[in-house]
Design brief:
The complex is a heterodimer.
Chain A: E1 3-7, E2 10-14, E3 19-26, E4 33-38, E5 44-50, E6 56-58, E7 64-68, E8 73-78, E9 87-95, E10 98-101, E11 105-110
Parallel strand pairs in A: 2-11
Antiparallel strand pairs in A: 1-3, 3-8, 4-5, 4-9, 6-7, 7-8, 9-10, 9-11
Chain B: E1 4-7, E2 10-13, E3 18-25, E4 31-37, E5 44-50, E6 53-57, E7 64-70, E8 73-79, E9 87-94, E10 103-105, E11 109-113
Parallel strand pairs in B: 2-11
Antiparallel strand pairs in B: 1-3, 3-8, 4-5, 4-9, 5-6, 7-8, 9-10, 9-11
Classes of the chains: A mainly beta, B mainly beta.
């Protein structure tokens, strides 16, 4: 069965600092991996996804993630945090016809 | 149109009420989903419809009854709910294989059961 684990329920950064949100996956087959962002009282918005091909995936809002098979990781990064990046971030793996989500990481951005 | 629209945005109901949540998409997606999300938790899958037929029911109690009248609409009928059913209910649709099979989520219905 496929699953993802997000390390850290909360991550705090200063505005302008590097953002690093960690996600490790477990999968018996080549995984399809996703990062979603959720703002308060909103649905989930897709940031980026990895299926096959290039292991460095660029998404919206300046985010990117790198698929590392040797480390079973798919960490999300952004070089410079903005206040507007404060939200809940979910890593997910495709499981059949649906997604299995990690527990989420709340990103806090301070001025 | 790249949106999944959910109505109502907020709903308060008593335990004896009957209400329905509505979801609509006009992207031609043939798979639609209901998820339940409790505060500070990830979404949990409830139902999946594929080509208007129920393909997955994650052992959801019968007080939740899904319906897919056509390829653009998905309803969730609610009856005799419990306070612990209070949550954000998210609808999603999935694009086809030639569009990356991505899930698009609506903004959700925040449900409070009194």
């Amino acid at each position: 069965a496929q699953s993802v684990t997000q390390l850290g329920s909360h991550v705090s950064v200063s505005e302008g600092a590097l953002v690093l949100l960690r996600c490790n996956y477990s999968s018996s087959v080549p995984p399809y991996l996703f990062w979603y962002v959720q703002y308060p009282n909103q649905g989930l918005q897709l940031l980026l996804k990895y299926t096959t091909g290039a292991t460095l995936v660029k998404g919206i809002n300046g985010f990117e993630a790198e698929f590392k098979k040797s480390e079973t990781s798919f960490h999300l990064t952004k070089p410079s945090a903005h206040m507007s990046d404060a939200a809940e971030y979910f890593c997910a793996v495709r499981t059949g016809s649906t997604l299995t989500f990690g527990k989420g990481t709340m990103l806090l951005v301070s001025p | 149109d790249t949106e999944v629209t959910q109505t109502p945005k907020h709903l308060v109901m008593g335990m004896t009420n009957k209400k329905s949540l509505k979801c609509e998409q006009h992207m031609g997606h043939r798979a639609m989903y209901w998820y339940k999300q409790k505060a500070k938790k990830p979404p949990e899958l409830m139902f999946v419809y594929s080509y208007e037929k129920l393909s997955i029911n994650e052992s959801v109690p019968s007080r939740f009854s899904p319906e897919c009248p056509n390829s653009s609409l998905l309803n969730l009928h609610l009856h005799a709910l419990q306070p612990e059913d209070s949550a954000l209910y998210l609808c999603a649709s999935r694009s086809g294989p030639n569009r990356g099979e991505k899930l698009f989520f609506g903004s959700g219905t925040q449900l409070s059961v009194l």
